[in-house]
Amino acid sequence: MSEFKLREVFNQETVNYISNQIQKNYPEFNKKEFEYETLKNFDTLNFKERNDRIRDYLIKYLPDEYIKLAIILEKSLGPEIIIDDLKGYEGFYILPMSTIVSKLGLKKEHLDISVSLLVEMTKRFSSEGPIRPFIRKYPDEMFNYFYNWRENTNPHLRRLVSEGTRPRLPLSSPIKQFIEDMDQLNKLIDLIEPMMNDPILMVRRSVANNFNDISKDNPKMVINTFKKYKDTNNPQIQWTIRHGLRTLLKQGNVDALELLGFKSALITKPNLKIYTKQFHIGENLEFSLSFKSTKQQLLMIDYIIYFVKKNTTLKPKTFKWINRVISKNEEVEIKTLQSFKQMSTRKHYSGEHKLQIMMNGKVIAEEMFQVL
Q1: What is the pLDDT at residue 165?
Q2: 3-class SS at 321?
């Protein structure tokens, strides 16, 4: 079975569905020409190029007047999402239409109708990307919308508040005002902090992702926010904090570790053993760690592999291993296999690699191994 590629969410069936929806609400729409021009050499295009192709030909065959165009788009939307999560790829047909809004609807006189349209679209497929140009251009106006949406009964609209404002949203350009302007960043944190306790996991995950983004540039802001909840027993807030600190935890940030109860590890007899110090691409790295705990303590043990890149430099990647309470005088041995099979997400190269073991944020052992 061939591997699924994201670009395939845009295909002939998607284009046909969009054109059928548009023609129902705009009889003058030249469905035949739209489909022909859009699908020409479509299989050679990547995800973004396919989205932009659909968007641009929709613009070509829809009315020039933006308000008329917006009304047609809104009437052409399919049914709302009825679940409290985002799964599958069915809703991607909305994306080319929502990017029309961010391309053509940025004039001040169009702000209300554009935002209203993105609200309807996010109830069917997230508008997190298309709403970002509006945040950059009209931050005060958008925050007024966000404060209202934060209390909305629709979880997809609440998620738009936290996901659309992420400083470093994947597949989008950063929102620099939330990275460099401390006043704007404080305003963002004040906006999303009450959402840490949202009843819907989808929303809390988005809030945590936002805090995780913030931590990459302004870790102290996140730590200070989360310190307020250090003694909370609320499981929803605890989940948001753990997920929101994941980058800092991988980095071994002492403040983040202490916030979750991880103090300096007290152990004796640490022994890292690599069973396969030389192996071929496609095989496994097999290793174990043993040690003795001198007291009862909470330990987070990760391992870091410094992978050889194409240019022969080493690039580290942290892998979660164990996270549990270890008893006093307990002797621990843990083993694992790390696959070196070629994957679309990771290309392996031969050369000398490095393995490190990190315990509560500090490297306690390391060994080299050879990949052939």
Answers
A1: 98
A2: strand
Euclidean distance between CA atoms 204 and 235, whole angstroms: 11
Cα 236–Cα 240–Cα 243 angle in degrees, nearest 5: 135
Residue 86 reports pLDDT greater than 70: no
DSSP 119-164: HHHHTTS--TTTTHHHHHH-HHHHHHHHHHHTT-S-HHHHHHHHHH
Query: Hey, where are the domains in the chain?
Result: 1-127, 131-261, 267-371
Question: Is 70 exceeded by the pLDDT of residue 68?
Answer: yes
Q: What is the pLDDT of residue 254?
A: 87
* DSSP result, 249-260: HHTT-HHHHHHT
Q: Among residues 20, 25, 119, 127, which one has the least CA distance to residue 75?
A: 25
Enter the CATH code of domain 131-261: 1.25.40.290
pLDDT > 90: what percent of the chain?
A: 84
Distance CA 46, CA 40 (A): 14
Question: 267-371 has which fold?
Answer: Immunoglobulin-like (2.60.40)
Burial of 151 (0-12, 13-18, 19+ CB in 10 A): exposed
Helices 47-61 and 12-25 meet at what angle, rounded to 10? 20
Count of H helices and E strands in the chain?
16, 8
Write down the H helix ranges in 245-316: 246-250, 254-259
* Chain centre to alpha carbon of residue 291: 36
Nearest to 249 by CA among 293, 212, 221: 212
* pLDDT, tens only, 171-190: 899 999 999 999 999 999 99
CA gap 125, 93 in Å, rounded: 8
What gap in Å lies between CA 367 and CA 315, rounded to an integer? 15
State the Cα angle at 240 between 239 and 243, rounded to 5°.
85
| Range from 43-57, 88-102, 141-155, 202-216 carrying the lowest mean pLDDT | 88-102
CA neighbor of 108 nearest in space, from 165, 163, 68, 66? 66
Q: Which residues contact 103 (CB under 8 A, 6 or more apart)?
A: 55, 59
